[in-house]
Each structure stands twice: as C-alpha cells, then as structure tokens.
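Per reviewer request, we include the raw input and output of the structure prediction for the construct analysed in the revised manuscript.
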Amino acid sequence: MAIKMIVTDLDRTLLRDDKTISEYTSNTLEELARRGIPFVIATARPARAVRKAMPWLRYDGAVFFNGAVVMAGEESLGAYKVEGAFRIVTDILRERPGTLLSVEMDDYLYSNIPPEGMGDWGSDYCYTTDFKETAGRLVEKILISSKELPSERWMEEYARYIPQGLYMQMSENTLIMVMNRQATKLGGIRLLAERCGVGLSEITAFGDDVNDIDMLRECGTGVAVGNALPEVKAVADEVCGSNEEDGVARWIGENVLA
C-alpha cells in the first residue's frame, strides 16, 4: 500500500543530538513536499519551542504537547487540556514540598525551578512557588520530577495525586508528564489523517520513546530509530538507522521516494 503521510517524533528521532538535521534530511523533507506527501511532527515539545529552536523546519501538521494541541498548518484541530491543575500541584507541594513542578499553560511555562536551573526551557518562562497563576485555568500539561526520590519511584509516589481523567507518562527517565487522557500522539494523528483523507494504514510513523509506542503500533508502518528504547523497538515493524545516521530520512528515501 502506498504511503500517503509521514509522522515523526523530533528529539532523538528526526533531530540529531545537537537538535539539528543534516542537509540530506532537509532535502528529503523538501522532496516529500514536492510530491505532496504530508509531513507531520508529533512531539512532547510545546509549539513555541519548535518555532524558536527550529524556525527552518517545515511541516504540514503538528501534534504538540504529546497530543494536547493538534494543528493543521495554522488551524487548531483540537486542544485536550488538564482541568484542576492548581489543586494537583498544591496538593503535591503541601505533602512533598521538594517536588520540582512545571505547568504548561497557553504555550507558556510556569515552574518552581529557579531560572538558573531552567537551561533551554528558560524562554517564555515564569518562576512561581505557589502556581496561583494557574488557579481556575485549563493547562496543557503538568511536569513532575524530584531530586529527593529515585526516578523509578516517581510514578508510584505521584500517582495518588492524579485524577482518573488524566494520565501519567515517564519521558526519557527525566520527568513525568501529566495530561488529559485524550491527549496522545495517536489521537492527534487520527485528527490530522481525517483532515487529509488518509487512513492510518497509509501512514508511516517514526519514534524512539515510550510516548511513541501507540502511534508506531497503530499506524500502517511503525519504524523505531536505531537509538530507540528496547520496548519501542519491540513494537515497531522495522528499525532504521539512528538519529545520528539520518535514519528517518534514509528510510523515507529508500521506501517512499525511491
């Protein structure tokens, strides 16, 4: 069956470790555009981070915040947000005051991590200790981590603060993402596929991390990059080269553009 849409994660999948793409990958994406094959990014990153860090990246559709925001060009197809974020973070801080928390709201980051600890997250950022800015507001995502607990205990320890309408997911073993249960990469891909008149069986998806598993499993062809986690490779139909080897672009060149 012909491949009619390409979907890819960004970090450690399409992007090299230095957050760039090679000339070969750039030319491959341009060829996809010339042939009219929609190119979609599916990322846990917020829209602002992609716009600022990768202004050179052209895409036809985007799944941001791991699925909380879905865009077709500049048009929003859906926004699946978290209700009650202020209560959640307040309860956590009352019982575990050492928890590192961040809240994404209206494509802006509110965090109790001091500015010097923010690194690349420091743009469009507000330092807060009480998160009152989020009271009564819907937010895209809550981020949780801790220096007081080993990361293997985070999911168990913080689960009791999370209502049933939300879900938790570990990202690269560095933080927990809390999102609306409807906010998934696969859900966003379904919306974009419907808009483009493409069936899931006609889509190839690329990924490396746990939050990519559903889309790799459900799309017509799921491809794990060579540097993907073992559990991601286990569900993939194929494994391509790593993100440092232009794995995504080379697979597309050999299987879609040849």
